[in-house]
Amino acid sequence: MLKYILKRILMVIPVLLGVSVIIFLITRVLAPDPAPVVLGEHATQEAMAAWRVEHGLADPIWLQFVNFIGNAVQGDLGTSYYTHQPVTREIAARFPATAELAICAIIVAALIGIALGVIAAVRKNKAADHASMLVALVGVSMPIFWSGILLIILFAGILHVLPSNGRVAPMLEPSGGTRFFIIDTLMSGDMEAFRDVLRHLILPTLALSLYSMAIITRMTRSSMLDTLNEDYIRTARAKGLKQRVVNIRHALRNAMLPVSTVIGLQFGSLLGGALLTETVFSWPGIGKFAVDSVLKSDFPVVQGVVLLVAVIFVFMNLAVDIIYAFLDPKIKYGNKEEG
User: Which parts of 229-298 fold into alpha helices (H)?
Assistant: First the structure.
């Protein structure tokens, strides 16, 4: 086990290095010169040249990359061209918003997805099964930005029951604390702000959770169907146990291993992939921050956000693999055992 964990950790290094090379080449080689965008079209050539020297863009590409990697290893992702603040500080200020949204989305996706998957499996080829699979198909097929727009039109534009943007009403925004507004409002005892935070969370959470919910539904159904055909399930039924007990206590519990893996991977995707959702709902997280930075050619921010997303996704995969190994002792690791 220890050998496998060390091997997986070492594999993280080339992955992150590869991501760093790709994002660096995109922002420094393939992208247009940021100087005219940042300084404006009326800036003189001398001013733009001085700006490039100030931000290290006049150095050779290889030297820029070496400096970028060296600084990133030390936790320095550069300085924003616009705010003149360290990128790490800018990301840290916005990451709680993305994390809060992703956590709520994965909870909703897991609860609904597992429930639909179980119903589909125990009602195989019946109306409930077809309905669950239809919901899953819609969740997989519908783009996040489109489902988000539809939700805004229905609940904010037509019914006027939910807000369409932001995390909380400006007058109710909690100050200080963890920057996780659910936690901060509960800790302060401000129930009005807490309810407002929940109202702002509903629409982006639904939009972001649809795809993950569909994936979890399909995996739960498939895993449950395999488990329901096992001999010990037939034995449990032969003993006269109630069908609900057999389905939940025996079948679902053993079917949850691959499902838990999918949930872990989907959570990593949600943390890094909330870009479209945050843009549609004007959610002040790292996704919207990255989009705004791309439009403004604020390349240090873009590099920092992409690198953070890569780190999150890679380590979520690593964590899922390690947890999977502990949950399923039948899995063997190591080169000798794999052969």
Answer: 231-238, 243-245, 253-272, 275-280, 286-295
Whole-angstrom distance, CA of residue 29 vs CA of residue 299 = 11
Residue whose entry in the numeric block shows the structure tokens 């001398």: 46
Can you tell me the distance from the alpha carbon of 290 to that of 298, in angstroms, rounded to the nearest whole number?
9
Q: Are 227 and 152 in contact (CB under 8 A)?
A: no
For residue 94, how far is the Cα from the chain centroid? 14
* Closest to 166 measured CA to CA, from 140, 190, 201: 201
Per-residue model confidence as pLDDT tens digits over 68-79: 899 988 889 999
Residues constituting the chain: 339
pLDDT value at 202 more than 80: yes
Q: What value, to the nearest 5°, has the Cα angle with vertex 197 and ends 196 and 201?
A: 115
Q: Kindly tell me if the per-residue pLDDT of 107 is higher than 90.
A: yes
Alpha-carbon distance values, 321 to 1, 64, 261, 326 (Å): 11, 35, 8, 9
Report pTM: 0.87
Bridge-partner residues for 79, per DSSP? Answer: 86
φ/ψ of residue 4, rounded to 5: -65, -45
Instruction: State the Cα–Cα distance between residues 175 and 181, nearest whole angstrom.
Output: 9
CB 197, CB 185: distance < 8 Å: yes
From the list 166, 191, 154, 150, the residue with the least C-alpha distance to 288 is 166
Pick from 177, 215, 183, 210: nearest CA to 197: 183
Is residue 297 within 8 Å of residue 238, measured between CB atoms?
A: no
Half-sphere exposure of 134 toward its Cβ, with a 13 Å CA cutoff? 7
Is residue 290 within 8 Å of residue 301, measured between CB atoms? Answer: yes
Give 316's contacts (C-beta < 8 A, 6+ positions apart). Answer: 264, 265, 267, 268, 271
pLDDT at 181 over 70: yes
Q: Running DSSP on this structure, what letter comes out for residue 159?
A: S
